[in-house]
Amino acid sequence: MTVATRIWAVHLAVLALLLAGGFLLPAYHQTNVAKVMVLATYAMGYNIAFGYTGLLSLGHALFFGAGLYGAGMLVQHAGVGAGPAALAGIVAGGLAAAVVGLLALRTQGVAFMIVTLMFAQAGYLTILYNTAWTRGDEGIVIAREARVLMGFDLSADLPRYFVGLGLFAAGLVLKLWLVRSPTGRVMVALRENEERSRMLGYDPYARKLAALVISGLYAGAAGAAYGLLFGYVGASLASTQYSILPLLWVLLGGAGTVLGPLVGALLMFYLIDYSSAFTTASLLVVGAALVLLVLFAPKGILGTLRDRWLKWLP
Amino acid sequence: MTSRLIGKSQSRRSVLTGMAAGAGALALPSFFPGYTHAQSSEPIRLGFQLHRTGIGASYGRWYERTATAALKVLNEAGGINGRPVEIIFEDDGTDPARGAEVFGKLATQSNCDLVFGALFSHVVIGTAPRAAELKVPYLVCSEGHHVASGMLNRWTLQPGITDVKSQVQGMAPWVAGNLGKKVTMIFPDFAFGHDHRDYFTAAIAAQGGEVIAQIAIPPTETSFTRYFPQIPAETEVIYHVMVGPAVLTFVKELGEFYGSGARPQLFGFIDSLEAVDIASPGLEFLEGSHFWEGHPRVKQADASEHEVFYRAAVGVDDNGASVTDPADVATYAHMFSTWETLFVIKAGMEAAGYQGPADRQKLVEAIEAMTEFAESREHPQGAKTFNGKTHQAFGLQSITQVQGGKLIRVHQTSLEDGYYPDEVDYTSQSF
């Protein structure tokens, strides 16, 4: 079996498992996994910027929020259908990333983190203050009758699961193609040594901007899907927490791995879900897990597997 | 954290009876599903979406205690339809995303018949779509206007507490008539504050008064001194609804701003100081000021026997703190809603002849058919009316004044003070 075949086989097997989950999982876990797939799509986008290109952003909540509100507001205030609203959300995420990137990519490292964080905070406060449109911290409900995509009722468990899976699968395949393409290799080169990439003739600013915009498109798609699938658009989903969460999912699953974001998002979701049944300090449990990770598997779960056994894992 | 409360332990006889009934039911062909279900002695399982952690934790702690006390009273009186009742508490972290997940967990994993208890508006709004998807009744204790505004759905009801629009409207005549007509509002610059801004501005205008300045405080603010010079000199009343940990700083700095000189009258919603001792250092400036309280935390001289019973059952002393820890001040103005909601559930289930999840729709319809709740042990906060079309209860509101460090009632509104035209008819919506 060639490496390429092996890579595609593993990723398609994961998608097949998720497909089977749609039929086998009990209702509660079906909804959870649908949500995890949407959030993992967001994390995959984050991974393109952070894991592959080395852009440690704390502003991705703005891109996720742009998709969430871009779709949600159109449905709520303009009566736009779910399909066009989702497309608008994707564009909004990419556009927000382009605007932020144009300015923030003039900085690097810690300064980039701070500038992106400031943009995201400005976006969050904009949502919070404009209650006439957004209902601020309370958020808005997307009417059930508006949550219909190509005849599928997105408020029903099974269609929601498969739309979530479709989004995740599209994101996964695109990402797999991207990171194995020449463009993806330039992204990794930028992460490893920006100056050397520049000397080889690549324009780091343009390449990083492109990576950030792709990342923003993923975030926008996930945000739009979240609003349409789960019927709620709220400011808390655009808060700083939602900039940090994809970072943690990616770190847990393995930065610079294609499947890492899914593994990280799934593990952290259920870590919180199960630990909250026993203790109010569920976030402490998450914190302890992250400390253990840093100590024993600093490259995340799949990153460590790749280092030790699965050298071929993208 | 999940916790479970069962009011009645089952005796060996009832277990054997239940087993026999269960075996019989299995042996019978399913011609009489209603009959076989009616014989169930299984507990009715109620899910409680609890703000045990997060920003609502101080409320959550008391909501849990109040619901637990109500459950004990309810089960000692025979439960619901002769069946014991169980409450399963699940922490939602006061987070809307987690709230919806917890709702699903309670409804589909813990097999609860319904879910109730949520207070914070963003959690309620984030969860309500899930209630409609699962077709599980969701009885909220939120006081937000989101239910009566028509924003939510037929499965979401608020029968245990008045909404903020009605509260504000009910207060305005007394404020205009007794404190002054030129009002400056100071409020947090997000939806909660904006609701107060919009509702009170309209309500005071209807009384011939006027809001002469609206000072919105950004939610990230930790010091307020620079905002106070914006208060117009001709202000007769300052209406304040600051919330969150900075509220003590807000009051302290307001006191420093006015010093010992003349100051406008102060009127605030107790939301600012729920679970906070009004006699705390730094709050001396509030002496003589007025508050809205849904349910006065200090036992009033004319407290009804029902109020006395409720206070004792929950474990609150005459000052509004825990009987076991005087520093543990209750969220008294709001927490009655969990008690009263539980008894509305009981009345609704009994009216609907509720046997199990198949009767959830009947339960909603039974609650929609309710019109009045008389003051009683079940409704110790006072008499209420319930509007089945808007799914909203309307109750009496109290205005209390800080006198010697205690909140003493100086006015109680009438039910009519809080009425406003219907904004939705949920009964015309499908399930």
From TrEMBL, chain A:
Main location: membrane
Topological relation to the membrane, as annotated: Multi-pass membrane protein
Keywords: Cell membrane, Membrane, Transmembrane, Transmembrane helix
A Pfam family reported for this protein in Swiss-Prot or TrEMBL: BPD_transp_2
Transmembrane segments: 6-28, 49-70, 82-103, 110-129, 158-178, 209-235, 247-271, 283-305
Subcellular compartments: Cell membrane
Cell membrane listed as a keyword: yes
Protein name: Branched-chain amino acid ABC transporter permease
